[in-house]
## 1
Amino acid sequence: MTIRVLIADDQMMVREGFSVLLNAQPDIEVAGEAVNGREAVERTAELRPDVVLMDIRMPVLNGIEATRAIMAAEASRVLVLTTFDLDEYVYQALRAGASGFLLKDASARQLAEGVRVVAAGEALLAPTVTRRLISEFSRMGAMPRPPARERIGELTERETEVLALIAQGLSNAEIAEHLRVAESTIKTHVSRVLVKLRLRDRTQAAVFAYEARLVTPA
């Protein structure tokens, strides 16, 4: 099945470069482009791409607000583009519903694989990002949200343990190794966690864990 992608970036060279790289993949097609956040929302509603490559800093409507609008409409998954992995807005974009982030200097292989990962419903969330999320919550002094704490109670002890490990950036294989169980068992636990907590993907699960204070800075 072909993965359809919308590229939203105000820099023409970035859009054209990514278009060439992605269209060269046998399973990926660039369905359209957008030059600002508002156009990204409109084009997403019109084209219904599987993945939106979303620049954060754009005119008219920034990538964070555009991501929030797209997520509200449940139209597509969003993969955020950023120049620096320390971009302060990455955290806000993930909270807005983005499934992960990708550096603009990513290789063709990393770009294509990132699109595939997000299209498959997984999260492109490296351990460095999860540590940054925890640090940001600590810096802000964020208090746990009561609804989040209450919903944690819906999980079994094992599911709660798996959620905490997701929030630490571990993959299914790494969680399976850590808990000494089969990877298929972990996949089942992850699916149940997402269903019970009414979450879309692992990124939302990670953010939820921080907000519930299931994971805290060391």
## 2
Amino acid sequence: MTDGDGSAPTSRRRHIARLAVFAAFLAAMFYLVAVARVIDIEVVRRAVAATGPAAPLTYVVVSAVLGALFVPGSILAAGSGMLFGPLLGVFVTLGATVGTAMVASRVGRRAGRDSGRALLGTQRADRIDGLVQQRGLWAVVGQRFVPGISDALASYTFGAFGVPLWQMAIGSLIGSAPRAFAYTALGASIGHLSSPLAYAAIAVWCVSAIVGAFAARRGYRHWRGHASGRR
């Protein structure tokens, strides 16, 4: 009886420690890559350009990994525009965005899924799983529209909550399309910021940010109303 009573707190502490280590790792990577800028994107661009005809595919793979390591997607997308132009660059950016979402969500699922379920409890975890099955795809789409949220961090979180890979891929493709165009077009027109393409990119970014802020506010109010009704 004593052993049984002591095992639950011990198991809980183990899950908390596991999530804390994972969170600390993500925080350290975010600081090193996004704040301290230990990765030189210009060097990456030159290395990719040196691969010749394989450069677009190479950039997709490299950017997918760098995005999962918290290199800002706007910088990677702008680099895609500078290297490949606005048309091919958009497809390269979208491929990298989907790749980042799948890599990060897979890692998040492996690192935090079991511990998260254990800490939430079976009943609450099953309820969240039901919501994920119903609305996971559109949650990913909506998050991509909201400005100021790291897509990589959101993908790690979605993975920990069990959002399937196909929902991550399709949701990222749909939700990231406006910003992918905006940042890639800005990168492609970096020397001509008064061009119609640059103005179009800025307009698309502003519209997507407004739509994202409105959707986030509406979703938060809906969640609060649902929570109040349950109480």
## 3
Amino acid sequence: MAVKKQSRSTTTTGPRRAPRSQSARTVHAAPSDTDKLPFDTEEVLRRVRHEVRSFADAAMFELAAKGHGSLFEQLIACILSIRTLDEVSLPASLRLLGRAHTPEALARLTPAEIDALIRPVTFHEGKAHQVHAIAVRTRDEFNGQLPADPDVLQSFKGVGPKCAHLALGIACGHEVISVDIHVHRVTNRWGYVKASTPERTLAALEAVLPRPYWVELNRLLVPFGKHVCTGTRPKCSTCPVLPYCRQEGVTSHR
């Protein structure tokens, strides 16, 4: 799909909101055999931003808003969120970090004590051991301060690009894209990228998505994917993005 870019001056204001001065706009030309509008990144994300304003924020952004915004806390919370609904992982993260929010304090807990605090999350026993190991290594190897380095973060067991990028984006303001199942599904359904796995979607998005939206994309598309562009029977008839969306792979919708 052809891509045209128009560059304008931009200022990145952080992961929780769009830039005040909008950045380069990515426009994908509409296929000639459809009546869809050319895919305008800036306009589409503006519409999504408006659509999700009444929905709960994605769990890790909400956690940061509640005072747990350090890189260590965000990384721990992301591990708890893997294959777990936000409605489950957020309260579990708040319980755990309310008890011990620093590497030193968390390392003093036993895996069994951690497990008791996070029990509702998926794979809680294994995650309890992962969380404890991260706390101990952060305390002993990094003097209690996690480096803001994606390679270091991904060297911990259970931490992949999604968690590393999301934690760095929220806690440190790094311009990185975090691709979960919602980001992968929605951007491919739009026809904005075409990729078979989240990892390939990440690479494709890095090539076309303007940098000021890299962190915000996850914050927007998690609630959008949960409530509007759902995995089965998406709400296409009322979706504000429908004029731009190619509806790739959609066989039934509401």
## 4
Amino acid sequence: MSENPATPETAAAAADVTAAHAPVTAAPPARPLGATAASAAVPRRGAPMFPDGTGPAADPAGSHHERRIRSFQPRRSRVTASQAEALRRLWPTWGMDIDGLSRLDLDAFFGGLPVVLEIGFGMGEATAQMAAADPGTGILGCDVHTPGQGNLLRLAERNGLSNIRVANGDAIILLREMLAPGSLAGLRVYFPDPWPKKRHHKRRLIQPEFVALAATRLAPGALVHCATDWEPYAEQMLEVLAAEPALENLHSGYAPRPEFRPLTRFEGQGLDKGHTVHDLLFRRRG
């Protein structure tokens, strides 16, 4: 089960947000954001969600990077008032768009903390729990789901977590164009979209090319941790990770679930359906 509850078939391919249900024949009276209903935080179809540039961009890399098969579809969906408020207030400090135009200074962004990259954090509950349990490690969460980005920032502020930053856009561009070799202390990919149909397997994130690229951005000893409840994808993950010469498996096959990875509600739903969750723990060779 993916951390993101929407499936590729139901996800909107466009970056436009869902239109508000209120009639648009007349403009509604101005109200403070915190006093609006959840749907009132969503602009009308076609209108930019953050016209003043205080939130994540719809397509941060634009067209200056090559076209290729992607493992995700950008989805803004319905953003609640609290999520939108968190994005507007916190994005300029704790957020970044993956535009691929400059190198990211992780030391400056995280105040010198070692940084783990988490790709696909869903609504951010597990990310916030791990950040709280390990305040000495920075977590750079990469996702394209606007509600989840806002929710993670909201959780970080509410719980006083200064070791979380949010990256918006394509993780491959982030790794290839914006992160220096050997700059990451770890990589986490939890419950990525399994793309279960055979014709969609090429869209899966964990492929040899991706793993080879990610390995170059990991410092010696950095931990790669993947988890999935989709058995065929787990088998592919194990095969691909084991074939990467820069990585070594910390177990003979799959790993027991580490205590530092929280049990999320989506994972719990998968377990209730009889799914088996597989963890994989690999380490960057020195």
